[in-house]
Design a protein that fits this description.
CATH architecture of the largest domain: Alpha-Beta Complex
Structural class: alpha+beta
Radius of gyration: 24 Å
Number of strands: 13
Mean pLDDT: 91
Strand content: 15-25%
CATH class of the largest domain: Alpha Beta
Number of helices: 10
Shape: globular
Order of helices and strands: HHHEEEHEHEEEHHEHEHEHEEE
Low-confidence stretches: 5-9
CATH topology of the largest domain: Phosphoribosyl-aminoimidazole Synthetase, Chain A, domain 2
Largest sheet: 7 strands, mixed
Strand order of the largest sheet: 8-10-7-11-9-12-13
Helix content: 25-40%
Number of domains: 2
C-alpha cells in the first residue's frame, strides 16, 4: 500500500474521530448544560418551546399567577425504572401523578412546575421525547407547566433522569375531601382494575415476555373527579392507590378516619393478565401500585348516581362498589374472601417493587 496513504490516514483519522466525538456530544447532556451558560439556556428553551404559555415565556425566577378561593398545593418526585414502559414514560407519569394528587382533595388542577435532574451523557433526543410526553399529558389534563428547573449531575450521580413536579389547584366552595373524613355507612367505590401499573413496570424492568402486554394505567383523574362533584359534593374521601396499592390506601383512610373498612374480594376488578403474573410471582394485586385509579368514600344515598357518572367516563368504565365503612374493628381493613372467610388486610411492610413511580 502506498506509504503516502498511511500518512494521510494517520492525520485524517484523529480528525474524523474528533468530529464524531463532537457530534456525539451534541446529542447528549454535558455537565456544561448545568453550568448556567449558553448550553443551559439552550436546554431550558427545549422545555419552554414545548410548554408554551405566558407565565413561563417571561422566564422570570417565579411564575406570577392569580387566584381567588381555597388553594391546594402538592409536590412529588419521579425516579421510575425503566423510564419507558408499556403505556407510558417518566414524563407522562410525572404530570399525571401530580394532577391526580390535586384531584384527590377535590381541586381543579391549574398549574404545574417541572424540575429535571439529568445525568451527564443522557441523550438529548430522549430528553426531547420525554418533554413531548409531558406536554401531551399536560394538555390532556388541561393544566399548564408554568415554571421549572434543570440540573445536570456527573455520570453515575443519577440514573438517566429524575423529575419533580409540583402543582396548584382550586377547590370549589362546599367541597371538603380528606382521608380523615370517611364516615360509618359510606360506600367505597373503586374506579377500575388494580395492579396494571406495577406489573407493567415489572415486565419492562425484567423484560418478561408476556403473551398479552400489560400496560400502565397512568392517566389524569381530574376529569372524572370533576364529573363526580357535579352530581354530589358530599364525597368524603378520595385516594389514588399508588405505592403500596389499594391495601395501603384503605389502611391509611381507616386509621386517619378512625373507622373500620370491609371490602369484598370478588368485587375488586383485576385484569386476568395481572392476576396471572401475581400468582406466578407470589404477589398480591391489592398491594401493587396503580397510577390511574381512584377509590372514593361516598354517602350511601349518593352512591348510585356517583357510580353511574363514573362508569360513563372512560377512566371509570370498570368502576365497582367494593365495600363499606363500618363501626367495628376501627383502624383496620377486613377482606371478605371468595370462599366466605375473612382476613385482615394489613399495611404493606417492606417494598414489593421499588422505583415504580
Amino acid at each position: 500500500m502506498d506509504p503516502a496513504w498511511f500518512l494521510l490516514k494517520a492525520h485524517v483519522q484523529p480528525i474524523t474521530n474528533m468530529v464524531k466525538k463532537f457530534k456525539d456530544n451534541e446529542k447528549k447532556i454535558l455537565l456544561a448544560h448545568g453550568s448556567g451558560g449558553k448550553l443551559t439556556h439552550q436546554l431550558i428553551k427545549s422545555f419552554v418551546k414545548k410548554f408554551r404559555n405566558l407565565p413561563l415565556a417571561k422566564l422570570d425566577d417565579s411564575a406570577v399567577l392569580k387566584f381567588k378561593g381555597k388553594l391546594a398545593f402538592t409536590t412529588d418526585s419521579y425516579v421510575v425504572d425503566p423510564i419507558y414502559f408499556p403505556g407510558g414514560d417518566i414524563g407522562k407519569l410525572a404530570v399525571n401523578g401530580t394532577v391526580n394528587d390535586l384531584a384527590m382533595v377535590g381541586a381543579r388542577p391549574l398549574y404545574l412546575s417541572a424540575a429535571a435532574i439529568i445525568e451527564e451523557g443522557f441523550s438529548l433526543v430522549e430528553l426531547e421525547r420525554i418533554i413531548d410526553s409531558m406536554n401531551r399529558a399536560a394538555r390532556a389534563a388541561g393544566v399548564k407547566i408554568v415554571t421549572g428547573d434543570t440540573k445536570v449531575v456527573e455520570k453515575g450521580g443519577a440514573d438517566k433522569i429524575f423529575i419533580n413536579t409540583s402543582g396548584i389547584g382550586l377547590i370549589d366552595s362546599g367541597v371538603d375531601i380528606s382521608s380523615k373524613n370517611a364516615r360509618i355507612g359510606d360506600r367505597i367505590i373503586l374506579s377500575g382494575t388494580i395492579g396494571d401499573h406495577g406489573i407493567a413496570i415489572l415486565s419492562a424492568r425484567e423484560k418478561f415476555d408476556f403473551q398479552t402486554k400489560v400496560k400502565s394505567d397512568s392517566q389524569p383523574l381530574n376529569g372524572i373527579v370533576w364529573e363526580i362533584l357535579k352530581v354530589s359534593k358530599k364525597v368524603h374521601a378520595l385516594r389514588d392507590p399508588t405505592r403500596g396499592g389499594l391495601a395501603t390506601s384503605l389502611n391509611e383512610i381507616a386509621e386517619q378516619s378512625g373507622v373500620g373498612i370491609e371490602i369484598e374480594q370478588e368485587k375488586i376488578p383485576v385484569e386476568e393478565e395481572v392476576k396471572g403474573v401475581c400468582e406466578m410471582l407470589g404477589f398480591d394485586p391489592l398491594y401493587i401500585a396503580n397510577e390511574g385509579k381512584l377509590v372514593a368514600f361516598v354517602p350511601q344515598k349518593d352512591c348510585a348516581k356517583i357510580l353511574n357518572v363514573m362508569r360513563k367516563n372512560r377512566y371509570g368504565k370498570d368502576a365497582q362498589i367494593i365495600g363499606t365503612v363500618v363501626s367495628r374493628h376501627k383502624g383496620r381493613v377486613v377482606v371478605k374472601t371468595n370462599v366466605g372467610g375473612e382476613r385482615v388486610l394489613d399495611m404493606l411492610t417492606g417494598e414489593q417493587l421499588p422505583r415504580i413511580c
